[in-house]
Design a protein that fits this description.
Two copies of one chain form a homodimer. By secondary structure, chain A is α+β, with helices and mostly antiparallel strands. Chain A has three domains: about 50-140; about 160-300 and about 310-315, Butyryl-CoA Dehydrogenase, subunit A, domain 2, CATH 2.40.110; about 320-350 and about 360-635, Butyryl-CoA Dehydrogenase, subunit A, domain 3, CATH 1.20.140.10. Helix content of chain A is about 50%, strand content about 10%. Chain A has helices at about 5-20, 25-30, 40-50, 55-60, 75-90, 105-115, 120-140, 145-155, 305-315, 315-345, 365-395, 400-430, 445-450, 460-470, 500, 505-530, 540-545, 550-575, 585-595, 600-605, 610-630, 630-635, and strands at about 160-165, 180-185, 190-195, 200-205, 215-225, 230-245, 255-260, 270-275, 280-285, 290-295, 300. In chain A, the strands form three sheets. In chain A, strands 1, 2, 3, 5, 6 and 9 form a six-stranded mixed beta sheet that branches. A three-stranded antiparallel beta sheet of chain A has the order 4-8-7. The first copy, chain A, has a two-stranded antiparallel sheet with strand order 10-11. In chain A, helix 18 packs antiparallel against helix 19. The longest helix of chain A has about 30 residues, at about 400-430. The radius of gyration of chain A is 27 Å and the shape is globular. Chains A, B: InterPro entries: ACOX_C_alpha1 (IPR055060), Acyl-CoA_ox_N (IPR029320), Acyl-CoA_Oxase/DH_mid-dom (IPR006091), Acyl-CoA_Oxase/DH_mid-dom_sf (IPR046373), Acyl-CoA_oxidase (IPR012258), Acyl-CoA_oxidase_C (IPR002655), AcylCo_DH-like_C (IPR036250), AcylCoA_DH/ox_N_sf (IPR037069). Chains A, B: This is Acyl-coenzyme A oxidase. Chains A, B: Keywords: FAD, Fatty acid metabolism, Flavoprotein, Lipid metabolism, Oxidoreductase, Peroxisome. Chains A, B: It is found in: Peroxisome. Chains A, B: It catalyses: a 2,3-saturated acyl-CoA + O2 = a (2E)-enoyl-CoA + H2O2.
Chain lengths: ~675, ~675
């Protein structure tokens, strides 16, 4: 398939379809009083990705190199070697800022490059994320100038790849509980790192099995008690830079044992490994001691009294990882939707509507539109939410309030975005039938590779507890003045015009109403439990778990409100240049769909039954209007043809006898 | 890991947990007025799988042969070879009835064997299903005695494997549209089978790429018009037995082209192939002509006038395939839940509830219970629904009403069961964290292999249209007398005791109420569309698509009602031997969960808001009671240890340095 033949096929089919669609019984029956809308692809593209897409296109072009052709049916060892080659190649062509480049120099360039990258392949993103984000990031944020100068130049070029060894067999989403130990040995003047038992082995360490020479190892630090040298003082979790493989022989270093985590159902381009340390000596200067460590005099020193604060400061890179997942999720959802919708626009089945016509395009079935368009609308919403959290990340010198807000929202978006991606991959896979499973068509492969997103960098449901915990005291009239006028019956015993139901004001107020009502229900439940409890020491975490349905409902409501708020903000901004925003339609469908299908919002009966029914009618109308604009909505994503599979193009020609599908 | 060390670990953890649970704040806070229940594992096991489990255990034992050890990280070619070896081995030990054995001789034995098989691996089930179910089944049902005698003995032993070539690139869920042609050549006295264009190539044909020698090929039959020999008469779709590979050389037969469908994101043990026929001659006696074909005089003959009837009669095997999927789905869901719940009973994280205690078992978190127990309850429900559809299948000489009912319910169960399996695999995968992705722990591998179930043997949403279409005239007071007393306000403006809300009568009546109300809404919408339409020829299919949300809602409601009805029936039957049924608890949770979480049921507001809220409380209470009985509920499934992964056993010991996970 060439790009042009694919475009021609689509164009031909779409034109033929438009020409006949006035007689289409399905569209005419869905017509409502809503005026037609015509969305401009280019305006939308600028809203999504900015006017200057030079660097984004540069990166997309790099991915045309034969090295980046998708390879399927290979063993995990082959997948890892390929992933290493690709990572090294990208390092060579300079797709990341150098370690000593100031953080916000060329910021837009590197954002655009890294954004474009994320469409391509999750194994490659993950190898880059583990090495540059976690390994390099930890040294840059926490290490001494001496360590940076020595280890970051060969890390930048991927000559000396590293890994980030935090997770253990026994502790994943709860890193505070890790069991690896580091003891300060006064006599030898070094740290001794040790794996005390089976569950303390480092596990799932990305790039550890085959790729990495170095590792940032996290351990519970014990130093001799100054007042009683025979006793150990626990100082909490610290990070150490530890060589794990000999730079020449590639053999594990003395005292280090390395094993592979074995085959996984996806992401096999990433070599996850297991590490054990048998009393490995680590020099004093190899501690990443920005927030705490043993000083030249052999005494422990930290800027924080609290171990929790030390740990929080050190783990700021993990929040950045979550931001990365929110972005990739939205981008990969765009890719999957582009593939499935294009296929639906060229694939015919189930007979003709009228005698003598061709069979109906599957994208013309209402059933098929309902599968895909609400997901398309939410993908738009999540795109802008991902941009918002990137901006929050990039605020220099955040104050404490900003740090907390960033932590809470990045955790929440990570959950809702990765789940949305998995839902989108499932729906698009099914929408493409068996073709959705064919590796060369990408969706099935993406499903396998992205599944891990729901639990790595923190389990999604656990992340939502973080959101509930962090928001329960914030979602109050004191902190959000609009809530002061909250009235439980605000929307009841009323009818609303279609214009109101479709308006951003109504939708946003109802989302906020839901979040606030959910916070009140949760707060009341917590209060009752506290008043009844005999066990006065029960933690808030434990109480929130006891009310897990309410906690999850509240957390989701907070994050959904944030997402809609951002979408509305951009919609309004775009109004300044034109009287109609191209985002209005997707915002309407996104909002209506949640009001129609979210069992929690529906259960709470904020609105009357007739309003609820009318919302369902409007969902139908919004889907119809999306259908009329779907070419613009999909092509504005700008996913290039070489990142899509044959079914997004001329899949008939791709299946001639001569074509080699046996890969 | 040995079975006994695994059992010991679980026992030790569970006993320790029971000893401390009276002081457990989470359980005590969830207590309601409901009396405690204690479920007996053995009683439950008999209800599920009957008293005599000899043949089931025989099959489980066969799967201990080293040939059946799970292999990961292999190419698709290796996976296919392994799958062929396993299929041949099973044929040798006699796991299927011989072709000439009367259908219901030894019925229980073969049901038990095939049931046990389905827990093991979807690639193996699919290879067996394609060969024995579709290929052998077609010859047995439609072929002449001569063909049976010649081709079925070597098919039984898998010496001459065959495939079933119906699906084409252009037509999958809509087989009526296939384009492959068979013309009767009067001069040569044979059929000529031809692939007229690219979309007519046979596609996804299981076992065609490497394994099969023979194929049952489906084609549109054209015979010369008796009144005008220059014109062709279309006789509809017929099946032909066609050799595709030379028995000695394995080379494609003359005129046959074979290609592989390429790597897939799962089910790679199954070699899906593509087939083209270039004017291939097929002798007259190779037509599977039970319902129609050319006779000795060269004239077309059929017992049916209607092409649709001919086609329907021939495709009865496809309904049987759907039954198989309903059963396997339930069994694989049992496997995944057994793995995840056992892991949750031994995995600790997120700190201790009280100082000095071990960290909390993740299965003791309310959040974790809510992830898994509603799925456990629904899996019980689906187990019995699958048994019911098997009984419907096995009725000899079904009348037309029974055939229709079987077609409708088998289509509906196929959809709801396979989706439930995919939901269960996703939830259990996430519940196991990264371990859920490790191939050796099976869940990730099952996810990849089972994804196809949602669209093969018919796309699930399309299947639900079949259900809506088939039920809209049946879900009436005339056919279901109970509906005559239907009253829209039946449940409104009333409160109900907990005992009522938990009762099977209330739940079943509400499910039926929902299905009937949905049928009325859909019927009204169809009526309105018909009265407004200008295009008088619009088909019911097209109108149902126009109201796809209502059609899908109705179809789901019909199937959910069937599932609950079956569960209640078995629950009541089991009451005859005891005053308490061990199924009551799962039936309660299954019913309550749908009432609480199904957005359609919630949206319709059949019950008052306070009742809706009370249902949510009772969900919490039911989850708590399931937690108290979860060992019995899981172990009654009887999934043997060798079909579970290391995390279902002593996963700590499975991760010692010496263990080789690098597979």
């Amino acid at each position: 398939m060439t790009a042009s033949s694919s475009a021609q096929l689509r164009l031909a089919t779409v034109s033929a379809h438009l020409a006949s669609s006035s007689a289409d019984p399905v569209s005419s029956a869905l017509e409502t009083s809503l005026p037609p809308v015509q969305i401009n692809r280019d305006t939308l593209s600028v809203l999504l990705d900015g006017e200057d897409q030079t660097w984004r296109n540069w990166m997309f072009d790099q991915l045309k190199d034969p090295l980046f052709e998708y390879k399927n049916n290979i063993t995990k060892e082959e997948a890892v070697r390929l992933n290493q080659q690709r990572t090294r190649h990208l390092a060579r062509i300079g797709f990341r800022p150098k370690w000593d480049e100031p953080k916000f120099k060329n910021h837009k360039k590197f954002l655009a490059i890294s954004d474009a990258m994320s469409y391509y392949d999750n194994s490659l993103s993950t190898m880059g994320g583990a090495h540059y984000g976690l390994y390099v990031g930890s040294i840059r944020e926490l290490g001494s100038d001496e360590l940076k100068a020595k280890w970051l130049p060969p890390a930048d070029t991927f000559e000396i790849p590293g890994c980030f060894a935090l997770t253990e067999l026994g502790h994943g989403s709860n890193p505070r509980g890790i069991e690896t130990e580091a003891h300060w040995d006064t006599k030898q003047g070094c740290y001794i790192i040790n794996t005390p038992n089976i569950t303390a082995q480092k596990y799932w360490i990305g790039a550890a099995a085959e790729t990495a020479f170095m590792s940032v190892v996290w351990a519970q630090l014990y130093v001799p008690d100054p007042s009683n040298k025979d006793q150990w003082q626990h100082q909490g979790i610290h990070a150490f830079l530890v060589p794990i493989r000999d730079l020449k022989t590639r053999e594990p270093c003395p005292g280090v044992t390395i094993r592979n985590c074995g085959a996984k159902s996806g992401l096999n381009g990433m070599d996850n490994g297991r590490l054990w340390f048998d009393h490995v000596k680590v020099p004093r200067n190899m501690c990443l001691d920005k927030y705490g460590g043993v000083n030249e005099n052999g005494e422990y020193e930290s800027m924080f009294q609290s171990k929790d604060q030390r740990f929080g400061g050190q783990l700021v890179n993990l929040s950045e990882g979550r931001v990365g997942l929110s972005i990739s999720s939205a981008n990969l959802a765009k890719t999957a939707l582009t593939i499935a919708i294009r296929y639906g626009q060229t694939r015919r089945q189930f007979g003709a509507r009228h005698p003598g016509e061709q069979e109906t395009l599957i994208m013309d079935y209402n059933l098929h539109q309902r599968r895909l368009y609400p997901l398309l609308a939410t993908t738009y919403a999540q795109h802008f939410a991902a941009r918002a959290i990137m901006r929050m990340r990039d605020v220099e010198d955040k104050d404490l309030k900003q740090i907390k807000q960033f932590h809470v929202i990045s955790s929440g978006l990570k959950s809702l975005h990765t789940w949305h991606l998995l839902d989108t991959l499932q729906a698009t896979r099914e929408a493409c039938g068996g073709q959705g499973l064919k590796s060369s068509n990408r969706i099935g492969h993406m499903k396998a590779d992205c599944d891990v997103m729901a639990t790595y960098e923190g389990d999604n449901q656990v992340m939502l507890i973080t959101v509930a915990k962090g928001s329960i005291s914030d979602f109050t009239p004191k902190k959000i003045p609009a809530l002061a006028t909250f009235n439980k019956a605000r929307f009841q015993n009323q009818t609303f015009s279609d214009a109101t139901l479709l308006s951003s004001e109504f939708q946003l107020e109802l989302f906020q109403h839901h979040a606030y009502a959910a916070s009140q229900r949760l707060a009341a439940a917590v209060e009752i439990t506290r008043s009844q409890q005999t066990d006065k020491k029960q933690s808030l975490d434990s109480i929130l778990d006891q009310h897990s349905a309410l906690s999850q409902e509240f957390a989701r409501a907070v994050v959904e409100h944030f997402i809609l708020q951002e979408l509305v903000r951009i919609e309004k901004e775009s109004l300044s240049s034109s009287s109609v925003s191209p985002l209005t339609l997707v915002r309407q469908l996104h909002g209506l769909w949640k009001l129609d299908m979210d069992p929690n919002m529906v259960r709470r009966r904020y609105i009357d039954e007739s309003v609820q029914e009318r919302i369902r009618d409007l969902v139908g109308a919004a889907i119809h209007r999306v259908h009329e604009n779907v070419d613009a909505l999909v092509s504005a994503f700008g996913v290039p043809d070489h990142l899509l599979g044959p079914i997004a193009g001329d899949w008939v020609q791709a299946n001639v006898v001569e074509g080699n599908q046996d890969i």
